[in-house]
Amino acid sequence: MAYTILLAEDETAMREVITDYFTEKSGGALRIVPAADGGEALRQIEETTFDLLLLDIMLPGADGFTLCRAAREKGDAPILFVTAREDEADKLHGYGLGADDYVVKPFSLAVLYAKVQALLRRAKGLTREGRLTVGALTLDPDSGTVFANGARLDLPPKEFALLRLLMEQRGQLLSREALLVRVWGWDFDGTDRVIDSHIKKLRRALGPCAGYIKTVVKAGYRLEVDEDEGKT
Asked: Which residue, among 158, 154, 210, has the nearest Cα to 182 in the 3D structure?
């Protein structure tokens, strides 16, 4: 399923970088509609139904706060401010208008992408309901149970959350940074290398299904089942 995102950003290079990254990362599932100024963004908000809005605050024509207000009058699509302004008053004002999150420039594209995915998941119910099954591995989000090759596993909370995320995103590369943000939260004070330690623990717990978790050197992890592994 494709999702349409408004990107209101007056810096050409920034618009292009975000558009290219999101398009490539999502395989075209996230469609970016760019707006170079507030006036164009307002017109787009009036004419198009967006699944999510990325708004700069300092825009010619109409600022991000005005756009946020207009978007909230039309619907409840997630709104994420992407801006160089980091004053607490600006953040509180944005949240007061109905914004869902706030990213201060300069930022990591991977983190921005992860935040967008999380907001879409929350708003659109992208998290799969019911059991997740990959090869000989089954996870039930509601009961918190995991079965590997028919044997029930008792996973600690972090390992369970990592496995669930990897299974939900089967076949997709997830960077350490994205995993850290999604499982540990934005305010985690450690490094993304904590992911490696927990992946090792998870693999040990999975036993015959350990090979499902693939390491992508210098990039992150992906859950994928080879034909032979699926026969375990």
From this structure: 158
The larger pLDDT score, comparing residue 162 to residue 144, is at 162
Query: What is the token pair recorded at 147?
Result: 């079965």
pTM for this model (two decimals): 0.55
- 21: helix, coil or strand? helix
Residue with token string 């019911």:
130
- Tell me the sheet residues that pair with 146: 139, 153
42 C-beta neighbours (distance < 10 Å), count: 19
Place of tokens 């699944």: 51
Query: How many helical (H) and strand (E) elements, i.e. helices and strands, does the chain have?
Result: 8, 12
The residue whose two tokens read 């995102």 is 5
Kind of pairing between the strands at 52-55 and 79-83: parallel
Block residue for tokens 């700069």: 56
